[in-house]
Every structure is written in C-alpha cells, then in structure tokens.
Amino acid sequence: MGKKLIIANWKMNLTVNEASLYVHKLDKLVGKLKNTEVVLAPTMLALQPLNMQVQHHHFNLAVQNFYWRDSGAYTGEVSASQLRGIVQYGIIGHSERRHIFAERSKDIRSKVQAAVRNNITPVLCIGETAQERANKETSDVIRDQLVGGLANITSVEVGQIVIAYEPVWSIGTGKFASPRDVERAVKYIRRQIEHLFGKVAAENVRVLYGGSVNLDNAMSYLQTAGVNGLLIGESSLDVYAFAGIIKKCEDMPSLPVKRGK
Ligand code: 13P
Fold first, then answer.
1. Count of domains in the chain?
2. How far is 24 from 247, CA to CA, in rounded Å?
3. Helices 239-250 and 16-30: crossing angle, nearest 10°?
4. Residues forming beta bridges with residue 111, ordered by sequence position
5. Entry pTM
6. What percent of the chain has pLDDT over 90?
7. What would the pLDDT profile of 128-147 be if each residue is shown by its tens digit?
8. 132 carries an active-site annotation
9. Which atom of ligand 1 is found nearest the CA of 213?
10. Residue 114, domain extent
11. 19 ligand 1 Cβ < 6 A
C-alpha cells in the first residue's frame, strides 16, 4: 500500500504568476487528497514564492535541475544545498538534460548524491531512445542508467528514492508506451535494484511512468503492476487535465501496490 505519486514537470513553461494561479486553481479543483501525493516542478524562479503558497495546500515541490556542488564559483548554477527546505524532490537525469545538455552518468550520480545529502528525494529518470528500442537494447540502457546513476549511494538511500521510467521516444510525442511494456520495464528495474542493493531496497523504491501521459491513458498506468505513480509533462500544463488525472487516481479502488516482481 502507499500513496500514488503524481509529478507535474512543467519544464520551461509558465511564468511565476501563472504558476501561482495554477496552484490556486488546482487546489480548488482537487480539494483534500487521501491517496495521492501531488508534486509540482515549476520554473526555478517560482520555487521560493510557491513554497510559501503550497504550505497552505497539500502539494510538494520538485526542482527540475540543480548543480551537484554545494557552493562555490559556479556562475549561474543553483545547488541542492540552496534548495534544501524549499523542495522535497529533485528531478535528475531527465532525457532533455541527458540529450540537449549532454549530462553524463558522472554528473547524474553526483546530483543523486547531492540531493540525498541535502534531504531532497531524487527522481532519477531513465529510459531508452527509439533507436535503442529498435536495437532491442532497452534492458541494457535501463541497467546502465541505474548503475551509472546510483553508484554513490547506499542501499538504504536507494530504497527512499524515486525512479521514473520515461522512454525517450514517448516524451512529448503522443506515442505512449503500452502498459505491458511499462510493466516489463518496471519489473526489470526492480530486479536490477534487487541485484545491486537487495530485496528491501527493491521493494521500497518507488517507480513512476512518464511519457505522453494524458487524461485518457493515465489510469492504465496507475493500474499497472509495480507502478507507483506518474511523471507528466505536457498534460500537466492544463490544470483541468492534471486535476482530472489526480481525481481518477484518488478515486481508484485502494488495491495494495503490486510490486510486479
Ligand atoms: P510529456 O508528458 O509531455 O510526454 O513529458 C514527459 C516528461 O518528460 C515528464 O518529465
């Protein structure tokens, strides 16, 4: 059992004012939640003002990116230690960071470690490209990204983090993965975590699906064995669609979360 986790990744969208209005509206639309934890990842600029606003509601905040060193001469960067106490989650290794900003495994594992060090729960994003999928390399990519991203943390710490399976080919394309594929990938993720960090870590780690999730397909993933929630991009920009997904999740019969092992 456990609450489902639904994260809105707004990417480089919405101004601070728009973000604040959104939070206000979302709160009105969803009311008090029992079974769902909602996390918003707005622009970095909105984190501080929203932090005060969400304290009145029941939402948590995530940062979309940060630098792994705690302080120093790193012009333009924001550290996890500066974000401590403002955000509860940090998105790390998103495919846009890996592919557009050339982040490597080394950067990603340093960020995972920095988040843990600063009391921020890492949301480690992993997933294969269309080419890797066509080459039947999905499992290899998942394994490499898990090994690369989690190298510096302990099995206890791994049990507390979140893994988001986001196939690159499904992000922002409208081509979503089938629940069967997601179930298979999530099973494989837990098997790898068990292999690397033991059974308890594999049972405790939360695994999300992300990639073209919308109001119509969200339930099929929420009901997929082993899936603890969703990481949503475009559909989360529309507060009505996002609230609709949250409500569906909230009203789901409370089945024990099958770990899909
Ligand atoms: P879309 O939901 O727009 O496909 O984006 C998914 C994503 O990248 C969330 O981090």
1. 1
2. 16
3. 30
4. none
5. 0.95
6. 92
7. 999 999 999 999 999 999 99
8. no
9. 2
10. 4-254
11. no
